[in-house]
Amino acid sequence: MRVAVQTDLQEVVLTGDRQEPPDLFLDGRLRVSGQDEYRYHEALVHPAMNGARARVLIVGGGDGMAAREALRYRGVRSVTVVELDPGVVRLARTDPALASLNGQAFRDPRVRVVYADAFRWLRGAVDRLQERYDVVISDLPDPGITPSTKLYSEEFYGLVAQVLTPTGRFAVHAGSVTDRPRTYWTVDSTLRAAGFATRPYSAAGRAPGFAAGPDRADRAGGTGGGPDDWGFLLAVRGARPPALGLAADAPRLRSLAAGTLEAAARRAERGRGAEPPPSTLVHPRYGG
Questions:
Q1: What angle (nearest 5°) sits at the alpha carbon of residue 11, between those of residues 23 and 141?
Q2: Interior/surface letters 244-272, b for 16+ CB within 10 angstroms, e for the rest
Q3: Region (Disordered): which ranges (predicted)?
Q4: Is 21 annotated among the ligand-binding residues?
Q5: Who contacts 274 (Cβ-Cβ below 8 Å, separation ≥6)?
Q6: Alpha-carbon distance 66 to 209, whole Å?
Q7: Is 10 annotated as a binding residue?
Q8: Rounded to an integer, what is the distance from CA 202 to the centroid of its chain?
Q9: 26 Ramachandran zone, left/alpha/beta (phi>0; psi -120 to 50)
Q10: Is residue 204 a known part of a binding site?
Q11: pLDDT digit string, tens, across residues 131-142
Q12: Catalytic residue list contains 228
């Protein structure tokens, strides 16, 4: 263990040494594994960057990894990160290993960090009618195992729809397709109830029980092992699902290519079953 901090909201633990990248745990769950976090963050961010991308909004993402990926594109003028816990961002700014892993994203002058409840902040942005984003990225843990259910509700997605530009894209981490299909497809039906058309896809971790990123309670050899895939949804306003691809000027990626995304979409679609009801603030539909 390198760092252990109890913030006002959660326990934050950073492990690792000089010979290996750090691992970040929030309340005992592996949030970032330095050895292969790129698989999760590349899959989350890059499909949404295929188009206009001057203004990017990241909900969550206090570790700086999603911002790192967005900043790799020319034409990105601003990245706004809305994070609830200042302690996570403070560590991501100041710890040498974690700051190196996120590419010193929080030192980039294009990045603005807002410490706020994302639901309340986004509702305020809608009321101001001044902020519109080309890309919105929801970098949050699986709603089935965290208290962030309201950020996966129809009402929240309705707010996102109002701050997107007409051609904007919305990328959502929706939990494991294979291990928690009910949760994943509930996110899909909730997005569509809010007026989005969606394109499901997934990404595999390096090895079963070792995959890095949100919702990993432990690594190989621990109890349970955690799911070995992540499910994502790329969404746009309207009735026509978005194309799933990479921008022509996308940077060189370690885990994604056009064929990879096509296979990822087919893999996710194989799990589609009967459509579950959408989740709302009054009737949340996510289970454990």
A1: 65
A2: bbbbeebeebebbeeebbeebbebbeeee
A3: 264-288
A4: no
A5: none
A6: 23
A7: yes
A8: 12
A9: beta
A10: no
A11: 799 999 999 988
A12: no
